[in-house]
Amino acid sequence: MVEGHRGSLICIECLTKACRAVLLDGAGIAVPPYASCALCLRHISAPHWQSHGAEGNPIVCQECIERSAGMLERDPSAKWSRPKHMPGHVPGEVQDPVADDSPQQESGA
């Protein structure tokens, strides 16, 4: 988790979703002038991501998404890296990791 102002938090799952939506897919939303980012408490005219799973449906600005991703990537205990484009990924489409159905070879001694 990354903590913002006044105890606001963004979890790894939400940060991953925000990175994919805003930074990779270009699917960020514009917010009205009275809305502010839950992490930095500022209103900026940049794309935002909105959580639909957290109370109040908070929004997070692109700057905070980038900053939070950088912080978690530098933290070895987080074991997190920002999502990358996957081959065949269509922006805006939910993509599950490709399952490897190939048979596993046993290593003999």
Quick overview:
The protein is of the alpha+beta class and 109 residues long. It has two helices and four strands. The strands form two sheets. A two-stranded antiparallel sheet has the order 1-2. Strands 3-4 form a two-stranded antiparallel ribbon.
Describe this structure in words.
- It is globular, with a radius of gyration of 17 Å.
- Strand 3 (48-50) and strand 4 (59-61) form a beta hairpin.
- The chain starts with a strand and ends in a 35-residue tail after the last helix.
- The protein has a two-stranded antiparallel sheet. A two-stranded antiparallel ribbon has the order 3-4.
- It contains two helices and four strands; from the N terminus they run E-E-H-E-E-H.
- It has 109 residues and is α+β, with helices and mostly antiparallel strands.
